[in-house]
Design brief:
Elements lengths: L2 E2 H8 L2 E3 L5 E2 L1 E2 L9 E4 L16 E5 L11 E5 L2 H16 L4 E2 L4 E2 L4 E2 L4 E2 L4 E2 L4 E2 L4 E2 L4 E2 L4 E2 L4 E2 L4 E2 L4 E2 L4 E2 L4 E4 L4 E3 L5 E3 L5 E4 L4 E2 L4 E3 L5 E4 L4 E2 L4 E2 L4 E2 L4 E2 L4 E2 L4 E2 L4 E2 L4 E2 L4 E2 L4 E2 L4 E2 L8 E3 L4 E2 H12 L1 H13 L5
Parallel strand pairs: 4-5, 5-6, 6-7, 8-11, 9-12, 10-13, 11-14, 12-15, 13-16, 14-17, 15-18, 16-19, 17-20, 18-21, 19-24, 20-25, 21-26, 24-27, 25-28, 26-29, 27-30, 28-31, 29-32, 30-33, 31-34, 32-35, 33-36, 34-37, 35-38, 37-39
Antiparallel strand pairs: 1-3, 2-7, 22-23, 39-40
Length: 341
């Protein structure tokens, strides 16, 4: 899809300097611009690229002053970075503007859905499912029985949503993610084998939740596994049964959270973090990457290491660890000189 400079300027509330009829159909970095592409200039360190870029159109600040001749049409705005972000959002909306029910797909009995549904081919919708307005369900997606999906939610290709799950409004679930699979519940028997404990709870995602590709959120044994409003999960994350994650918490890739742990609001959790079960992590907590969390964490703490230590204490200890060989040699020398028992 092509857009003219004038159309883009109208979207951004900017002004065109150059050819208002020039068309673009793709986005590019300013240093990698090519004909037919749109770029932007926000960082003064990149100013020199504006004179060599092959892009057809560039978003710049109203205060930008060219010191050489330009071959690119400009759109002047107050904040180029903010405007480019706005344009990305607009572009994404246009790109995802799909509707209609493709075939083959399956819609089971007693399903209700709102206006402007997009259902991709080879999708399966189970019995008694309720789907809101403007929902997009991409191909090869499975929706189990008795699921609820709120308005303006997107499920990308290959998502699996097990029965009884509840998904709120304005959620985004990326490809390969599984919502509502069984929690890891097994009871040991006297002969050393294990008996599966039925997992009869569900998963609840509140509004404005986004979950990256190939993540798994297990259903509760009883009750619900709950992901609160505004939570953002990266790719390859495991959330076990009966976990609760508080509002606006963000978690990076390859983190695993064991069962029944409660995580507070506005936390930031790095990649490859392991969190044991049945603990409580407070609000506004910062957990550095590759930390192993084996205890409850108070509000506002920043922790690192395995087992986790307060962030500043970990850094001080790490300095000593790097010097450990020298420290041991110094101690041995003192022993040899009979100055230390």
């Amino acid at each position: 899809m092509k857009f003219t400079a004038e159309q883009i300027a109208n979207v951004l509330g900017g002004t065109v300097e150059g050819d208002a009829t020039i068309e673009v159909d793709k986005l590019s970095k300013i240093e990698e611009g090519e004909p037919g592409s749109l770029t932007f200039l926000a960082n003064p360190k990149y100013n020199h690229y504006i004179y060599t870029t092959k892009a057809s159109l560039a978003i710049v600040a109203t205060t930008f002053e060219a010191t050489q001749a330009l071959d690119v049409t400009l759109i002047r705005v107050e904040d180029p970075y903010k405007s480019f972000t706005q344009l990305l959002e607009y572009y994404n909306q246009v790109k995802l503007m799909k509707s209609g029910i493709e075939q083959p797909s399956v819609i089971s009995e007693n399903v209700t859905y709102g206006d402007n549904l997009y259902l991709g081919s080879f999708a399966y919708i189970g019995k008694n499912v309720v789907i809101g307005n403007n929902v997009k369900i991409y191909p090869n997606t499975f929706i189990g029985d008795n699921v609820t999906i709120g308005d303006d939610t997107i499920l990308f290709a290959g998502v699996r949503v097990y029965s009884e799950s509840v998904i709120g409004k304005h959620c985004v679930i990326h490809s390969g993610t599984i919502i509502g699979s069984d929690g890891f519940g097994f009871a040991p028997l006297e002969d050393g084998s294990y008996k599966k404990v039925p997992q009869i709870g569900n998963v609840i995602l509140e509004d404005h939740v986004e979950i990256g590709a190939n993540s798994t959120i297990d259903r509760a044994t009883l009750g619900s596994t709950v992901i609160r409003k505004g939570v953002k999960l990266d790719n390859h994350i495991q959330v076990a049964h009966n976990v609760e994650i508080g509002e606006n918490t963000v978690i990076a890739s390859q983190t695993g959270i064991a069962g029944s742990t409660k995580i507070g609001k506005n936390c930031i959790i790095g990649g490859q973090v392991g969190i044991v079960g049945h603990i409580t992590i407070g609000n506004n907590v910062r957990i550095q990457a590759q930390t192993g969390v084996s205890r409850s964490v108070k509000d506002g703490e920043a922790i690192q290491g395995t087992p986790a230590l307060p962030y500043n204490a970990y850094n001080k200890s790490f300095i000593h660890f790097k010097n450990l060989d020298k420290i041991v040699k110094d101690i041995n020398n003192l022993k040899k000189n009979n100055k230390l028992d």
